Amino acid sequence: MATKVLIVVAPFYEHITDQLLHGAIAYLGEAGVQYDKIEVPGAFEIPGVIANAELAQEDHPIASRHYAGYVALGCVIRGETSHYDYVAGESCRALMDLSLDNVAIGNGILTVENEEQALVRAGVDQKNKGRDAAEACVRMIEVRDALMHGKV
């Protein structure tokens, strides 16, 4: 069975997340990895969707699961309230908790001070953290599988 991942994207800042998504899809295509995509309202909801997808697969061995890993894409820009701190911190913490439960995740949720920083990190002709997140996901699938089969 070919490797397949789920891209979970929060298009709250669509002009930014579209670029992240473009970079992620380009990398997955180059790597020969299939994908599905689902949209959620915001970055805060991304870990919950990944947890639910994992829960739906928990009775299957990792090798036969529908999704081998996940790419989380979104953008949180600091505003005038503490909302940024909660969304950025809690979404990152929840993704880390999932990764500690043997879930392969590429974290492409930008946490930035302003839109200019986001555009630099998202731009397909710049740093494109969407591509980086897809690459991290694929690599973590490889590492997890190697560790499970004693091939490290």
Helix content: 40-55%
Order of helices and strands: EHEHEHEHH
Give the overall pLDDT as a whole number: 92
How are the strands of the largest sheet arranged? 2-1-3-4
**CATH class designation:** Alpha Beta
**CATH structural fold name:** Rossmann fold
If you compute it from the alpha carbons, what radius of gyration comes out, rounded to the nearest whole angstrom? 15 Å
* Major pleated sheet: 4 strands, parallel
Please name the fourth-level CATH homologous superfamily.
Lumazine/riboflavin synthase
Strand content: 15-25%
**Which CATH architecture is right?**
3-Layer(aba) Sandwich
Q: Termini distance?
A: 22 Å
As for the number of domains, it is 1
